[in-house]
Amino acid sequence: MILEALTTVLAALVSSYLIWLVAKRKQKDGEPPIVPFWIPWLGSGLQYQKDPITFLRKQEKKYGPIFTVFMGGSYFTFVTDPFTHPIIAKESKVLNFRICTIPTIKKVFDFTRRGVDVPTMGGLMVKYMQGHWLETLVSKMMGNLQKVLLHGSYNNTEWATTGLLHLVETVMCTAGFKSLFGEYPASSGVDNNKLHHKIVEDFVKFDKAFPLLVQGRPISSLKGVKESRANMWKFFTMDEIHKREMVYEMVEQYAKKLEEDQELEQLKKELYCVNWAAMSNTLLSAFWALYYILKHPEAMEAANVEIQRMLKETSQCVDGKSEINFTRDDMAKMTVLDSIINETLRLDISSSLLRQALQDYNLKVVSADRSYKIRKGDKLMTLFQLTHYDPEIYEQPDQFKFDRFLNSDGSPKTDFYKKGKVVKFFLQPFGSGVSKCPGRYWAVTELKQLVILLLLYFDFKLINPEQEIKMDQIRVAFGSLPPNIDPQVQFKRRVIV
Ligand SMILES: *[C@@H]1O[C@H](CO)[C@@H](O)[C@H](O)[C@H]1NC(C)=O
Ligand SMILES: *[C@@H]1O[C@H](CO)[C@@H](O)[C@H](O)[C@H]1NC(C)=O
Ligand SMILES: *[C@@H]1O[C@H](CO)[C@@H](O)[C@H](O)[C@H]1NC(C)=O
User: Fold this and answer.
1) What is the pLDDT of residue 124?
2) CATH number of 117-351+429-493
3) Using a 6 Å cutoff on CB, does residue 221 contact ligand 1?
4) Which pLDDT score, from 0 to 100, does residue 118 have?
5) How do residues 164-195 score in pLDDT, each as one tens digit?
6) Lowest mean pLDDT, pick from 67-71, 244-248, 255-259, 489-493
7) Alpha-carbon dihedral sign for residues 86, 87, 90, 93
8) 281 known ligand binder
9) What residues does 406 pair with on adjacent strands?
């Protein structure tokens, strides 16, 4: 009886596996080769996730600069040739970006944008994340960072110990939230400090779960995450925004637009998504920038020299009374910091370009000197990490070199080569084409601000400089990679004499 049942189950399993094998995609004439796989649904997912660069390089060696990989139930056609990336980025009509993001936004943030809203919302972002508007946001952030660093528990002239990531999360989340979403006035009776504490805690909990949500884990299976998201939503309703002061104009306009469209229910979810997008990758990159500076005394030295030079140029000094104020223009002149940040982004961001073909398409692959047929509905994928870690483009790509992006005269270095040819897309931490992150100018400025203020006001050291820290590949293709452990640092407020 039992044996019979088992046999039936086994037979069913074997036959469905066979059906699945038969139904697998076959390479047609003119199409990219398919990397073989035997595990249903997962496909090559595990190998890719474990070490994406090694996995993709291996396939590249075997199959050339374009090949199709099955993982997580979908086929992805990878293009590893950096000379072809600009072509994909430019082809925004046939190779669509938005339809790729809709399911992810629904899974993670629980809303679906209606088609008409998207350009308006995107337009708001672009408008308020550059030019003179951005200038006001940058100035607010500079003030808020100094308030958090100098007026709170960090104002301590004795050595204190903390995790570096924890410190960065707390400082950046608090200052960033205040700069974008304002603060409750004293008359409201709300304790802003307590509130910010809660916001950091809920943010971190959700952010840790983010890659799992993207992979399709149901939110209710992750302990406390749904509650964290619901807690956060409460701060992004129209009512709460009206109660706060100094809300950034972009947020006001965003709210107004959704109100006009009678989508108020969605407002809290959209704004929460904005808050997450503004913080998540920035936090992790800020962590790595500081970590590399602490690990590399020559980088620390060069950054300090440049910061002192800029203080002098702008006739400011650290007197503990007035706040330091560097404008975006000032910071744009700080090319050493720029190079440190670019080098950090090169190493820590796993950015990608994901596109879905809206019709059959012939993709010209430059280094193969031929075209490949892409089927309607196919997903094209480019992992910029491959370029960022390409030893032909960057010598010793695993090493942090603070001056990698500087010419000998101190100007930004922008010529990088592969096989003797200039690589146009040598550094794409923010993606490319229509999917390029609209907040990129702000992000880079925030990173500089944090580095400047921490180096000016604090002494820092890693407790265990020899400890090896790795990047966890869990967010591959989705942005900054988190460290596998949070290294402990000692810090103290510098005494002003
Ligand atoms: C920071 O701490 C110093 C020394 O304890 C104190 O004199 C100063 O007033 C504090 N600054 C702020 C802004 O709280
Ligand atoms: C910083 O300087 C700029 C330009 O001088 C000015 O517009 C801005 O208001 C200043 N910010 C602060 C916080 O003082
Ligand atoms: C860093 O990257 C940005 C954006 O790609 C670029 O504008 C800037 O010139 C770069 N700076 C240096 C020093 O390479």
Assistant:
1) 85
2) 1.10.630.10
3) no
4) 66
5) 999 999 999 999 999 999 999 999 999 999 99
6) 255-259
7) negative
8) yes
9) 412
| 107 is known to lie in a ligand binding site | yes
For 284-313, write each residue's pLDDT tens digit: 999 999 999 999 999 999 999 999 999 999
Cα gap 23→479, rounded to integer Å: 34
Ligand nearest to the Cα of 495, by number: 1
What is the bridge-based pairing of β-strands 421-422 and 417-418? antiparallel
Whole-number Å distance between alpha carbons of 306 and 255: 40
**Ligand minimally distant from the alpha carbon of residue 139:** 2
Evaluate whether 203 touches 276 at the Cβ level (below 8 Å). yes
- Whole-prediction pTM: 0.93
Position 115 scores a pLDDT of: 54
User: What distance in angstroms lies between residue 476's CA and the mean position of ligand 3's atoms?
Assistant: 23
User: Cα of 156 to ligand 1 centre, how many Å?
Assistant: 8
**Is 100 assigned to a binding site?**
no
Nearest bound ligand to CA 179?
A: 2
Pick the more confident residue, 13 or 41.
Answer: 41
| Residue 493 exposed, middle or buried by CB count within 10 Å (0-12, 13-18, 19+) | middle
492 is in an annotated binding site: no
Q: What is the DSSP letter of 160?
A: E
* Ligand 1, atom 12: closest residue by C-alpha: 151
| 326 CB-contact burial (10 Å; exposed 0-12 / middle 13-18 / buried 19+) | buried
Atom 9 (ligand 3) nearest CA: 412
Ligand 2: distance of its center to the CA of 326 in Å?
Answer: 8
pLDDT of 2 higher than 70: no
Domain boundaries, the chain: 117-351+429-493
139: Cβ below 6 Å to ligand 2?
yes
